[in-house]
Design brief:
By secondary structure, this protein is mostly beta strands. It has one helix and 22 strands.
Amino acid sequence: MRKMLPVAVLLLLPAALWAQGTLKVSSVSGPVQWRAVSNKPFSLLTPGKSVQVGDEVRTGPDAQLILEVPDGSYMVVSENSKLIVEDFWSGNLRSLMNLMAGRVRFYVQRLGGRPNPYRVTTPTALIAVRGTTFEVYIDEAQFAEVRCLEGRVAVETVGLPDREVILEAGRKTLVRPGEYPLPPVSNDAELIKNRVIHLVKKNIPDTNTNGAPSADVLARDNDRRNRPSDPLSAPNSRSTSSTDRAKPTLNYPQ
């Protein structure tokens, strides 16, 4: 019992720290503005200040901002970026921020051997943290480019929660509004933003009607190699009770 107590304290520590509902500003370079959730006018953000849930932060040209999470995780916000601080649970993931524009690199702390269960939202994509280092970039068209630098990252499209793409370290994907993420490629490769994805459909009879096909599903494809333990594929697959972990990866025709 005594041995279990320190472990329980460690598991509860992030929640206790997050109860403060703040991110600490550890470094500011260049023009960085901040506006409280109370809709006060924008003011300059300085090191040592804390930003609260609902606050809006934006960086100007040649600016950079580092925000720290109480558990030791931190994020580097690049120039010409705009974000809103978040703190809410969605399933077993906790949202850090809504990145509206620009680029942010995330360095997620580990607890108990696993990355802390964070999520980042954008107008286009939802990024679930399964690795420790990743980067998100939102352009003017709200295209979301997600790069995994260490560990694994799960990416899905806002409004299309039934498919996700798993990024391994050194891989990236692009999410366009209203479309599934593009097939992962190397971080050094070019992502073709106007690429057209042709989905292969299979008809499934609907027993509730007169036998006419009524459902379309995506064909199996090479994207499952990004997830060898997918419960819907792979001979050594595993089942799980977690709806997030059991979600099928996105399929593309070869």
